Amino acid sequence: LSRTQHFRFKQIPQSEILNHLKKILLKENVKFEEEALKFIARSGNGSLRDTLTLLDQAIIFCQNEISISKITDMLGFLDPQKIKAFYQAILTKDKEKVFAYLEELQDYEASSVIDEMLFYLKESFFAKSTEFSTLIYERFFRILSKAKNMLCDDDGFTLCVMAFMMMEASHLKEIDAQIQEIKQENITNTTPKITPSPIMPNLEKKIEKNAYEILLDSIYDRDFDLAECFKQSTKFISFESNTLNISSNAQGQNRDTLNKGFKLIQELFKAKFGENAKINVQKALTIDENKLQSLTQELPNSENKNNIQSSINMLKEGAKKFDPQEDLKEALKDCFGEP
Q: What sequence ranges are listed for the domain DNA polymerase III subunit gamma/tau helical lid (predicted)?
């Protein structure tokens, strides 16, 4: 033994063995079915010599016409059509047919039946057959593998358990489909229908703040009370040549507050608009409405009353835009004429 060498040869692929068998049968003018040759090649277990021996036996047994039915009888295999019918009975949950096939399978070894079912399932999978779904392939392969590990003295019991597990697995497919349908219904019911609408232009205009509002925001950030006083006591007139023109009607405490905080206001304004920015404050026109009202009542001429009343209204509207003294002169001029 020390001077011998051990060579381990790989099994010959079944596809090569199958092609070699075809060449032999064509030369010998023996009729054959290709599916039957697959059973012979598979039974040789990768050994060409053993396969050729089986081929010689098959030619004699089949009388020069090799068919699937004769080969399965010779080799003791199940007819693929019976396996297909057994699978169909399981998928359709036809219990009577399943029990009938289980009775028939009692004449075969359970291990051989499981191997034939695995082989049929594998061939269907690689052939991309639509007979089984991907989910069923996965479940049936797993059940058949478990069945091989469950083999015991009672082959009939193993095959029955295997068949019931496969029927249950095929039933779960319907449950999955129902779950998917329920999900789809929920999505349909909960999702609002969105009707396409034409794209409308954005009509919203961006509101830009003027210099007065920008300054007011800055004051609020630094001193809330000063900002409130500034807002109540001043009005925006214009912003020209980097100069903010505002009118002020501050009196009493508000006036003192603005005087104390005016330096801060100027610093904030210059920080926003540059060192050359200026604030021009004009004194707002104040009108004592009670005195004007009593004056109009004392005048006998109704036309003068109307003129004075319209002048009051004009003074109220124009106090923010014009110089107070000039505005008053124009109002009196309209009432009484040139002095």
A: 17-63
Contact 277/244 with Cβ under 8 angstroms?
Answer: yes
pLDDT tens readout for residues 326-338: 554 554 455 445 5
Read off the tokens for 303.
């036309």
pTM of the predicted protein model? 0.44
Q: Cα–Cα distance between 339 and 331 in angstroms, integer?
A: 12
What are the structural domain ranges in the chain? 14-75, 80-171, 211-283
- Do the beta carbons of residue 61 and residue 69 sit within 8 Å? no
**CA nearest 246: which of 256, 257, 258?**
258
Query: Hey, what CATH class is 211-283 in?
Result: alpha beta
Beta bridge partners of 280: 245
Q: Order across the sheet with 243-248: list the strands.
A: 234-240, 243-248, 278-283
pLDDT tens figures, 29-51:
889 888 888 888 888 888 888 88
Residue 232: exposed, middle, or buried by beta-carbon count in 10 A (0-12, 13-18, 19+)? exposed
The second-level CATH assignment, the architecture, of 14-75 is: Orthogonal Bundle (1.10)
Between CA 302 and CA 209 the distance in angstroms is 46
Integer Cα distance of 140 and 117 in angstroms = 10
Both structure tokens of 95: 């219990």
Q: Do domains 14-75 and 211-283 have the same CATH topology?
A: no
